[in-house]
Specification:
By secondary structure, the protein is α+β, with helices and mostly antiparallel strands. It has a single domain, classed as Immunoglobulin-like, CATH 2.60.40.680. Helix content is 20%, strand content 45%. The chain is built from 2 helices and 11 strands, in the order H-E-E-E-E-E-E-E-E-E-E-E-H. Strands 1, 2, 3, 4, 5, 6, 7, 10 and 11 form a 9-stranded mixed beta sheet that branches. The relative contact order is 0.24.
Length: 196
């Protein structure tokens, strides 16, 4: 029984350590339904699980035959020092180097920017996020490794357009939690009948 208690305590310690080292993620926030040709697509870009950071940046890639970038606006409520709304290039399907800084830094979950697209064509549409070539995320002068997501949509040429999916960022913390619960169940089962 004493060994099982040590095992459970060790598993809990490993889980607690993994939670404190969650990988920061940059992903899209999108809730529009029934997307069709001619619509305006509004998406926000949000960071989560950020350690204290003074800022960073990202770029957006998209299929320019299906979408046209109309605007990109940094969230200046949370990023108040120096910002750049990005460079829109509809010929190549990019909004490059959306950048932002905050003198006191931000951490946890924070909105980075809002983007607006015009829907040009029906079919499957993907929008991806990439690290900025000019300003990667940093904390105390050190680059932060960030996981970037994507958004996959289905556009209809009629009113029956649907959303088919959302962020492409994998749920790393969900997987760790699931593993932890499975280990606890295994230990619990063995504790019920330790003489088997």
């Amino acid at each position: 029984m004493k060994n099982y208690f040590k095992l459970v305590l060790s598993l809990f310690a490993m889980f607690a350590a993994s939670v404190s080292y969650a990988i920061p993620q940059v992903s899209f926030v999108y809730d529009q339904q029934d997307l069709k040709v001619g619509d305006v697509l509004n998406v926000d870009v949000k960071a989560s699980d950020l350690p204290k950071t003074e800022g960073g940046g990202f770029s957006v890639v998209f299929d320019s035959s299906k979408l046209k970038a109309v605007s990109s606006d940094v969230n200046t409520n949370d990023w108040t020092f120096k910002t750049h709304n990005g460079d829109i290039d509809n010929d190549n399907g990019r909004v490059s180097n959306v950048m932002f800084t905050e003198f006191d830094g931000n951490d946890g979950s924070v909105k980075l920017a809002s983007l607006v697209f015009e829907v040009l064509q029906d079919g499957d549409v993907s929008i991806g996020l990439e690290e900025s070539t000019k300003s990667p995320f940093a904390s105390n002068g050190e680059k932060i490794n960030v996981q970037y997501g994507s958004l996959k949509l289905s556009v209809s040429d009629s009113l029956e357009g649907t959303v088919s999916g959302n962020n492409g960022v994998s749920g790393g913390m969900t997987n760790i939690f699931t593993l932890f619960v499975m280990m606890l169940l295994l230990v619990s089962k063995n504790m019920q009948n330790p003489y088997k």
